[in-house]
Amino acid sequence: MSAVDDILADLPVDDLAQQLGTDPASLQSAAAAALPALLGGLEANAQDPAGAASLAEALGQHDGPVDALNVDAADGAKIVQHIFGGNQDQVVSQLGALDGHPNDLVKKVIPLLAPLVLAYLAKQVGGKGGAVGGALGGGILGTVLGEVLKGAGQGSATSGGKSAGSIISDVLGGLLGGGRK
Q1: Which Pfam families match (predicted)?
Q2: What does pTM read for this prediction?
Q3: How far apart are CA 36 and CA 59, in angstroms?
């Protein structure tokens, strides 16, 4: 099971869909498109030593369970800003183009998912025998991100020949380059 599948399995899709005023299928689809982009953005950031240190610190702050129905959207927005920087609108637009996801839904979903992604990664780092705060030691953070992203980059093809997973290489590669600090 991939990280995307793991995170999606824990999402209370019906409740979140109702909270956002959409149908569960649309929410599920938007989340499935957004998760690989978030994970890819984190990986791009971790390519730079300062970005990796920042990510390790963020994982330490999100080490513990997160209630998906009570996610701090302001915290999520800060995370998304750090991951995508000034490219957030471009990422949302690209994600919205996949399977015709409405941009406003994608823009609402991403900040709700970001704290869940960090909590998931913190759990994975801790599960690999690394202290979350010391995730840089021994390359544990890079190892975990590599394992997580193996499954995140794969997605079903859409009518335009793109997949949610292709956002990692196509969009984020061009927008983020070597990662943000």
Answers
A1: DUF937
A2: 0.79
A3: 18
